[in-house]
């Protein structure tokens, strides 16, 4: 009898072990599935929240001050908008065989300006690279300029070849170190070609609008 009891207990233990071994994969699968489901739910909620915030920001910017369509030309200059870039291009012909090409940055700096009521405002800065040349077989006369909200300031002037990457020209002294009369004549040279205070005003308005357009484009890309 004792032998049968021991044998029966051994059988019961074997059955319990087998039952446990069979249930472990099921329990593991259920736990893993639950974890994956919870993780997916959290990710989905997280992404939905990001999309909601982006959409709200886009709509806020559109409601507050919707951007205008980019202007394709100004005076005699054709404007290359270059969507998605931090630059725009300007180009025009001057005289019989002279070409002018200008690379213009978006706002790349500022200086503090004290107002009459003792508050401090920012004066935004734009960089211009002005190239003047007569055909591809001639050197380029290049001006590095600052465009402030209502004025153009020449910083450098030098000559180079057409390949900006390969050319390493001597860039000369700082513009302000040149003879005053020479400085004035070079400003006159640019003004005769439409590179003047009115162009500076136009570029600041244009870049204000481009800044808004590029921000909205960036938000749309982020959303997608």
TrEMBL record:
GO terms for cellular component: mitochondrial matrix. This is Mitochondrial glycoprotein. InterPro entries: MAM33 (IPR003428), MAM33_sf (IPR036561). It comes from the Eukaryota.
């Amino acid at each position: 009898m004792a032998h049968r009891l021991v044998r029966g207990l051994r059988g019961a233990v074997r059955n319990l072990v087998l039952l446990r071994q069979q249930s472990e994969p099921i329990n593991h699968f259920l736990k893993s599935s639950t974890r994956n489901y919870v993780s997916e739910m959290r990710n989905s909620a997280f992404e939905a929240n990001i999309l909601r915030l982006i959409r709200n920001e886009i709509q806020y910017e559109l409601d507050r001050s919707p951007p205008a369509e980019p202007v394709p030309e100004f005076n005699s200059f054709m404007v290359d908008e270059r969507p998605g870039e931090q630059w725009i291009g300007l180009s025009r012909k001057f005289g019989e065989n002279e070409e002018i090409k200008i690379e213009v940055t978006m706002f790349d700096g500022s200086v503090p300006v004290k107002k009459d009521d003792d508050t401090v405002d920012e004066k935004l800065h734009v960089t211009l690279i002005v190239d003047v040349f007569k055909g591809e077989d001639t050197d380029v006369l290049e001006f590095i300029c600052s465009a402030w909200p209502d004025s153009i300031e020449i910083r450098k002037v030098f000559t180079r070849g057409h390949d900006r990457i390969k050319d390493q020209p001597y860039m000369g002294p700082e513009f302000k170190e040149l003879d005053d009369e020479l400085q004035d004549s070079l400003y006159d040279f640019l003004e005769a070609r439409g590179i003047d205070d009115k162009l500076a005003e136009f570029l600041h308005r244009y870049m204000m609008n481009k800044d808004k357009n590029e921000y909205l484009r960036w938000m749309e890309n982020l959303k997608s």
